[in-house]
């Protein structure tokens, strides 16, 4: 199924008057404060987030998986789903593939399809956390860190293959997330594991095209529960520095121990020019991969405040690869992603409202109360009319979830694809 512009316009008509009233009110209020509303709207329109191919089907845990029916069962259908989300939100102009789950059969056909839906290929993800059917060596005890050279070589070669596949699609970055680590004290030699990982990453780095980036993702635990080789931003930063200038750290919001100050991590990585990518999600306990903004929206705003500051003040840091990395059991995955995109845009818009000059002056005065007031004033502003305006002008839906439901997207997908669909992937 493909959503045409007039379908979305029809869905918008009812809500148009109320949108205009709200927008008019907010835009006057912000303009009186000296804020350029048009500039913010343009920034919202330019902010595109990649959708991971594995989030389009209902996720699951080891305890079970409940289908949402009509899920995509091949790469074409996954890209079609991203196209649906993008048509409604105008914010999902990219897809992030996972190899080997998404190896294209016909590269030209896939590229054409993505192009027709205005979707780019963002970072490609390698997978050395599962054994593939045809593979000779097992990753049970690690991949790039493994004590066996044969295993390390297989994992290195897989990453080089992934680069090659991504290159044919127009991707410009490789994301490496390793499950490597240990479950019990004594199982691993920490130094050997890190050294092997560094050497393996350096070999992969050598195969990276000049205009590519390597994004190194860290995570404190899971699936290993005693130690993880790339456990934190410091380790990822160290490895990125060891590899070279095309290697960067990738921050996944769910990959921190409780109460970590993620906004500070983001800020320091940008200062050092080493923040390359971002995985959005939310969590209560660990890597819960819940809908963005569903649990800690203020923390998300504070993170965006640092991202906005960094994008304005750190030319040493490159443009970031933005991606949603969430997947779970109970919602229609497309509706879930739409909610995540809305939360991302909302936090971004609020961060754009922060008056950086006033904040700096209050910081210089050590006026702690005013510093907090400036941030909270931005956070407490209902920016949704700005998001609506940005979408409306780009041809998207005023209210994407409503439009998705009134246009009967899921039912249509079930009609086309059937009920018993299983998305490939996790
Ligand atoms: C795993 O926890 C990481 O968040 C990865 O970024 C990602 O979820 C994985 O590569 C998907 O298979
Ligand atoms: Zn991630
Ligand atoms: Zn994760």
TrEMBL record:
GO MF term (any one): isomerase activity
For whether the record's keyword set contains Isomerase, the answer is yes
Q: Which InterPro entries match?
A: L-rhamnose_isomerase, Xyl_isomerase-like_sf
Keyword Disulfide bond belongs to the record: no
Name the UniProt key words of this record, in alphabetical order: Isomerase, Manganese, Metal-binding
The organism's superkingdom is given as Bacteria
Q: Which PANTHER family match?
A: L-RHAMNOSE ISOMERASE (PTHR30268:SF0)
Name the record gives this protein: Sugar isomerase
